[in-house]
Structures are given as C-alpha cells and as structure tokens.
Amino acid sequence: MAVADVETNTPTPAKVNLLGLPEAKLVAFFESMGEKRFRAAQVLKWIHQLGVDDFDEMTNISKALRDKLKQQCEIVAPEVLQQLDSVDGTRKFLIRVTGGSVVETVFIPEGERGTLCVSSQVGCSLDCSFCATGKQGFNRDLTAAEIIGQVWIAAKSFGQLTAGGPRKVTNVVMMGMGEPLMNFDNVVDSMNLMMHDNAYGISKRRVTLSTSGVVPQLDRLGEFTDACLAISLHAPNDALRNELVPINRKYPIAMLLDSAKRYIDGLPDTHRKITIEYTLIDHVNDRPEHARELAELLRDVPVKINLIPFNPFNLSNYKRVSNNALRRFQDILMQEGFITTVRTTRGDDIDAACGQLAGTVNDLTKRSERYRANFVKDEPVTIISQ
Ligand code: SAH
Ligand code: SF4
Asked: Is 104 a catalytic residue?
C-alpha cells in the first residue's frame, strides 16, 4: 500500500517488513541498497536470535545504515491478543493479524522437547468434515512475517531470544490453522527461517509440514525444503476419504502417496519416514477392518503412524473414538509392524487441542456467516471487525 507524502504529494512506498525475509531475500535486499551481503546475516541474528525489532539496538551496524534502514524497513510481528497458559504447561497465543482476524499458535512442552504448532492461513478452504478451522471457510493466506512471527512471539515469551536464553521451542509443526501447501511461498520462506543457522537453527528433522494432500504443490516441495512431511490421511480408501477430506476427490490416495514417496526419496538423508496422521472418529473410520486396510495400503511406504483421537467441537456431530476402539486400532497396526503412536490431548483447559483451533476469524464467506454465531458464543475474546 502506498501512502501519499504530504509535502510532495508523491506516493512513498510501504516499508519492507524484514521479519519475513529469509537470508537469500535479505541478501538481495541489501545488495539492492548497495550494501554488503554480510549485513543480511547480522540482521537475521538480531531479529531471530536476539528478538530485536528496533534498528537502533543493532550496534554492529553503522548509524548511517541504521537510519537508512529505519526509512525503508520495519520489523513488525503480529500482535498478541491473549496468551493462555494451561496447567499442563501448554501455552496458546491468540494472534491478531493485519485486518483484524485472529489465528492461534500453540506451544506444547514434553520433557526436553517443546513443539510449536504454527498456523499458515486465516481459516482454510479445504473443508475437511471434522475440522473446526475448515468450518470457518477461507479468509486469507498469512504473510511470511505473520508465520515466522508466531515463532518469534513464542520464543520471545520464554526468554529464548536473549543471549544465553533457554531453548524452549525445539520443534515446529505446521499443523495450526490452514493448509500450508495452499500458501506455498510464504510457508517455504518461513520454514527456511526456522531451520537457518543465523535464525532459529532448528534441525530439519524437527520441522514438519502437514498437508491434507495438495499434490501439485507437494510435487514441488522438494525443490525448496528438506523438512519432515506429515500426510493427513484419516481413511484407508478413497470412498471414505472423499467424505472426510474433500480434496481427495481431486487428488486420490494413490496419487498422494506416490507424491509423498517421491518427496521422501528425494531427500539426501536416508531412513526418513512420512508421518501418517489418522484422526479416529467414533463409528466412522475406527473399525478393525479400517486398520487392516490401512496396513495393506501402507505396506510399501516408509511411514510412522500417528493416531489422533477426534477432538469434538460444538459444530460437529462426530464423536471421539472410544478407548477400546483406539487400542484395538493401534494394536492391529503394531502387529502389522508399523510404528504407531497416539497423540495425547494437551491444553484441554485452554481449548488448545488439534483441530479445535478456531480463532475469531472474520472471513467473508457465506458459510462462515452461518456458523459464526456459534463460534463467537464460546470465544474468550470479542470479535474484531475489519
Ligand atoms: N491443513 C493441514 C494442517 C493443519 S490440520 C492438514 O490438514 O494436515 C493439523 C492436523 O489436525 C491434521 O492432521 C488434521 O487432520 C487434524 N485435525 C483437524 N481437526 C481435528 C479434530 N477435530 N480432531 C483431531 N484432529 C483434527
Ligand atoms: Fe484445512 Fe487441515 Fe482443517 Fe482440512 S484438516 S480443513 S486441510 S486445516
């Protein structure tokens, strides 16, 4: 957006938000200013390792360059509307992005590990039948600054971005609101920052992109990243998956698994496995024959399976899988030789569970208007109009 200069009445260009620029783009930016490349590494460290958003604090940069940067750039993270802390250590952030919409970010501690569940879009267009985010429809893609900004905010909240601060965010999963592959460029730029040594330096084995199966984008992913991959499968055959994950009608299971295999095969290190996410819904996809069919389907695919008990929300008639059905399902897969884990629900008291992330989305679709009354009712924050 251009702003008119009062004196000359000529538009002044909007400032560049450096928060969302990965190193290659930051290098290009400095070169375009006639500056040295190494400035990019310096600025990356200030922003992402020391949490600095004020150019005057960047003491290894000359005053003249700092002044130039202040004129042309900014470092702006989205605003934290609310931080909710669960008794089990889970921390949820309600984050307001430009335009007034709210997205959610969840930090889940587990021993030495701290996993941050990051959102990639406001709402989601893919409308999986069991997902609260999907029920809101799609509003917009998050910018790279808004995606990496969630990591910046969480890390800062734990004092991680101070010299010698604790390394609390050890893992990131792109499993918050939205479908990451529908916001390809911004997600790739952000994941690049998460893994870059001059930024967060998280290992490629600890950053995971989760997708419901946007095959054309998955086919391109390997050119841009070597992060881990999770596939939201949820059904062992196309008939059932078509009902649960509508994008399956366009890109059926065989096509999706082939693309996922190509991604994993293309990674330089061997022994990487695809994580298969399978949300278990009572009397929908939780029968022993589903487990056996799943084992057959995945026989020759390098996978580990993560079972997620369905998390109910007020707009859904589905029910959580029973403990018996869950155990039986897991046993069958394990007997078939698959590494099979069950995701435990954390942060119950702050509604931080997988698939319940709803924010207070101001989306513009008709569908969302139908649903909004219900969403607003239970929300801890007031809806903000655009
Ligand atoms: N769009 C991506 C990532 C966000 S969803 C994807 O679909 O993979 C993250 C995970 O939460 C997915 O595996 C999704 O299927 C799961 N999920 C969504 N709603 C859920 C619910 N109500 N209960 C349990 N898991 C859910
Ligand atoms: Fe979108 Fe993922 Fe939810 Fe499906 S499960 S509607 S792809 S966020």
From this structure: yes
- 35 CA → ligand 1 middle, Å: 44
User: 201 in a domain, yes or no?
Assistant: yes
Decide which of 74, 100, 123 is a domain's last residue: 74
Phi and psi based region of residue 262 (left: phi greater than 0; alpha: psi -120 to 50; beta: remaining): alpha
Distance 57 CA to ligand 2 centre (A): 40
Residues 17 and 166 in one domain: no
Same domain membership, residue 205 and residue 329? yes
Domain extent for 58: 3-74
Confidence at residue 351, expressed as pLDDT on a 0 to 100 scale = 75
Residue 103 and residue 144 in one domain: yes
Q: Which of 117, 124, 228, 354 is catalytic?
A: 354
Q: Is the shortest distance between the CB of 104 and ligand 2 below 6 Å?
A: no
In the prediction, which pLDDT does 261 show?
Answer: 97
pLDDT category at 386 given cuts 50, 70, 90 is very low
CATH classification at residue 31: 1.10.150.530
| Reported pTM | 0.90
Number of separate domains in the chain? 2
| pLDDT greater than 60 at residue 385 | no
Residue 359 has pLDDT above 70, yes or no: no
3-state secondary structure of 249: helix
Task: Say yes or no: CB of residue 212 within 6 Å of ligand 2.
Answer: yes
